Amino acid sequence: MRKKEIMYGLIFISPLLIGLGVFTAWPLVYGIKLSFYVSRGMLPPKFVGFQNYIELFQRGLTATIFYNGFYYAILAVPIGLALGLGLALLLNNNFKTSGIFRTAVYLPSVVPTVAMIMVFVLIFNPTSGVIDIITRALGLGSPGWLGDPNLAKITYVIWAQWGVGGSTLIFLGGLQNIPKSYYEAAMIDGAGPIRRFFSITLPLLTPSIFLNFLFAVIGGLQLFAQAYIAPGPANSTTTPVVDIYQQAFQFFKFGFAAAESIILFLLILGISIIIWVTQKRWVIYEQ
Amino acid sequence: MNNKRKIGKIIWLIVLIAVSSVFVFPLLTTFLDSLKTSTEFYIQPNPFILPGGAHWDNFLKIFNEMPFFRELGYSTLYASLSTIGVVLSSSLVAYGFSVMRWPGRDKLFFIFLAFSTMIPGITLTLPLYQIFKSFGWLNTYLPLIVPAYFGGGMFNIFIFRQFFRQIPFSYVEAARLDGANEFYIFYRIILPLARPALAVVSIFQFFGAWGDYMGPLIYITNNRLYPLSVGIQMFESVPNTSGVTPWPYIMIASLYMAIGPIIVFAFIQKQIIQGLNFQGSIT
After folding, report:
1. CB distance A286–B114 less than 8 Å?
2. Low-confidence ranges of chain A (pLDDT < 70)
């Protein structure tokens, strides 16, 4: 039986082993190789050693681009998690009306990204958008949004908050897994709602918070569609992925783009490892 | 006490009505804007004022303005074929990582999961583009569909695995004693019990592909093969003959693209919450 189980286990996971080999490991190795070459149109690519990397680090724009990526992730992720958790707490009950509210909150998350960006471009138009009508009515003036280099990245952060429905659902799933008896016991012991939140809800939600956080950081650093379809002035919103895409598919500098994508990979790898290692200190797993 | 409860519930209702309005607001204004003509839209950008009344016929006229049905067809093709692959493949692999017991299983799963989430899509896309180009797969949907059949993504495997692990092992043992083979147990016993996971994975994958922008943007350069996601954006960025961006039509196309996921998610949100089980240790 034991040997048979090992064999069957391998059979079941074999599609993944092939997939990881062909569509992950091979491209990764090939990508590293590409980053040491320059493409020359019709001629075969030429080996140039670390030249692409040197060029990348000497280019002034590179720092701006990675700064833009981090700026977005550092602002959008914590705000999004806090809002998502807050909404999940508001929606975690058995009131009949909760279903309608859950649907409303989740609505923008199910709208395809491109459609949602079109909507945002329209309503955040600095002169004719409905948001402009509202800010002026509220006496907040007329912010330039994407037209203002200082505000363009913040605009994406604001847009992203319409998408917290996804993390709200994950938190709701986590909340529903917390046994009711814990709260009952705490109430018998006289713990108030705030005490119950910090002593039961928050610690037991840490696995959900951790995964939400990890995925949000990794995703945030790879912002693409907004920054590509609706860019701000100059390079105020160019993100690493947008730059990589443009270098490769618009300027046909595949080697340079590959080098930049490897740097992005190493950064995300490093940050993920830090998050993974530090999780032991704050994530509580029920056994 | 009863009164205090009532007041609490009323405050809760008010807060949630306010919050929900904020979330619904962009789509509501989009809907109102789509009822104008392009000229009316430029003269009166306030969505709550309809100077020429509601032009409901816009919702049909759109079909003359862009190749809507062709793009809809490609979006549907991409979404369905990749979803079939992801569901088949990721559930099968998850069975191998949960019900089957073999040494090093959980460690290997953890390494695969960690690694695959940490590699940015674009890092693999650049070399994959070259690889698929050498296969002659550019301007086909193969680069977007074929990989779905090989593993289906670690995240989807993770969702299935979390679910399979909650199914009592005695079911499997009983079936084995009856002489059922592993594929039968997987298909007939485990999979039917994992309906919420099936729903979550297939719906997320379907609408993920439905809205995917970057994938088609890279592999599909022939504009006659665009799916809706790229088509709508091209519709916005390429000026038409009159030189006016036809915002009302763009909004209608966006609404049409959004209506499917909105309806589906509205009906199955409870299942999604059950299916997304992130509690408990990963390993």
Report:
1. no
2. 1, 286-287
Beta bridge partner(s), residue A43: A40
Residue B147 predicted with pLDDT over 90:
yes
Who among A11, A24, A249 is closest to B124 (CB)?
A: A24
Phi, psi (rounded to 5 degrees) for A47: -70, 130
> Residue B108 pLDDT > 90, yes or no?
yes
pLDDT 10s digits, B239-268: 666 667 788 888 999 999 999 998 888 888
| CB contact at 8 A, A114 and B213 | yes
A34 contacts B127? CB cut-off 8 A: yes
* Minimum-distance CB partner of A20 among B23, B112, B118: B112
Q: How confident is the model at residue B283 (pLDDT cuts 50, 70, 90)?
A: very low
Alpha-carbon distance B174 to nearest alpha carbon in chain A (angstroms): 15
Q: Model pTM? A: 0.90
Chain B interface disruption, residue of A32, A85, A96, A111, most B CBs within 10 A: A111
* A145 conformational bin, left if phi > 0, alpha if psi -120 to 50, beta if neither: left
Q: Where are the domains of chain A?
A: 61-282
What is the CATH T-level fold of the domain A61-282, as seen in this structure?
MetI-like fold (1.10.3720)
| Mean of pLDDT over chain B | 89
Domain ranges of chain B: 68-233+258-275
| B283 contacts on A by Cβ (under 8 Å) | none
CATH topology of domain B68-233+258-275: MetI-like fold (1.10.3720)
As given in the structure block, the two tokens for residue A21 are 């080999």
* Cβ <8 Å between A265 and B123: yes
